[in-house]
Specification:
Layout lengths: L4 H13 L10 H25 L5 E7 L5 E3 L13 E4 L11 E2 L20 E5 L2 E3 L8 E7 L6 E4 L8 E3 L5 E2 L12 E4 L2 E8 L4 E4 L11 E5 L4 H18 L5 H21 L13
Parallel strand pairs: 4-5
Antiparallel strand pairs: 1-7, 2-6, 3-7, 5-6, 8-10, 8-14, 9-13, 11-12, 11-14, 12-13
């Protein structure tokens, strides 16, 4: 079952209020407050996933070199479990990727001017949210693999002008719509029973998706859907329920018991998926 943003809201309310209110009767301020707790809960689940096996949320982007020493990595948050998993030199093509060498940033200067131990490979290091290349390569392409957390959830109404492969949501009814280009790539959006993967988005809220069977009409409500497996979403829902009840001094023993029962299942999944390490996505020199 796909869990839409509104479905997750209802499930959290069911575990905290004992009943599922019609969301239309709840004020947006109340819903946004609950959504904030839900986003925090999803973030904690991502903490567990990334700290145990960051390859589960791995994605990449390609960096074109231009002779600079430092390149800003906006998706990297090094103080919150995120780290660079792998840097491939794909100048010769993705099927002929070459190894790179990571070094401590403070030791980078020993590699300036072509230190002989580099064997022609690209040297890199991480400093804050920058990748630094001490040799300042002027050409080439690096493929940077890193864990990326799913975007925060929201739901909102479609604007006029949807096409078979796009829809515009100018503002979120509940939740936060981030006006950043391609912020939602990899997430899903659902309209009625149609769930479509987002392949691009603009700052104006135009989402490009795989073709709709029936394009949304103006004012139809659409939900963002997390790409996390359902079991991990359920874990986040439970965490949100516990946080809300604890904040209201309500008993949380039953929810904690359920959470404790679910935790080993999540741990086993992470351990099993952890068998696949970065060596499966890189070329290994022999």
């Amino acid at each position: 079952m796909i869990k839409s943003t509104r479905q997750i809201l209802r499930e959290v309310l069911l575990g905290t209020n004992g009943s599922v209110d019609d969301l239309s009767t709840l004020g947006s301020d109340y819903q946004n407050a609950v959504m904030g707790v839900i986003d925090d809960a999803f973030d904690r689940v991502c903490d567990e996933i990334i700290s145990a096996n960051p390859t589960m949320l791995a994605t990449y982007y390609d960096l074109s070199l231009d002779g600079s020493q430092a390149y800003y990595l906006p998706d990297l948050i090094p103080w919150n479990y995120e780290s660079i998993l792998l840097v491939e030199n794909i100048t010769g093509g993705v099927d002929d990727a070459e190894a790179t060498i990571t070094t401590i940033w403070g030791d980078r200067m020993r590699y300036v001017e072509g230190w002989p131990l580099t064997y022609g490979r690209i040297i890199w290091s991480i400093r804050d949210q920058y990748i630094e290349l001490p040799n300042k390569e002027t050409t080439g392409t690096l493929r940077i693999w890193y864990p990326k957390r799913p975007a925060g959830l929201f739901y909102g109404s479609a604007s006029a002008g949807a096409t078979t492969t796009s829809v515009t949501i100018a503002t979120a009814t509940v939740g936060q719509l981030v006006a950043e280009t391609n912020h939602y790539i990899g997430m899903y959006i659902i309209h009625d029973t149609q769930a479509r993967r987002i392949s691009a988005n603009t700052t104006a809220g135009v989402f490009t998706v795989s073709a709709w069977t029936t394009a949304p009409s103006e004012n139809d409500v659409l939900d963002l859907v997390s790409p996390l497996p359902r079991a991990y979403q359920q874990r986040a829902i439970r965490e949100a329920q516990i946080a809300i009840r604890a904040g209201g001094d309500d008993p949380i023993g039953d929810l904690v018991m359920l959470s404790d029962r679910e935790a080993p299942d999540m741990t086993r999944r992470l351990r099993k998926s952890g068998i696949q390490g970065p060596e499966y996505i890189r070329r290994v020199d022999r």
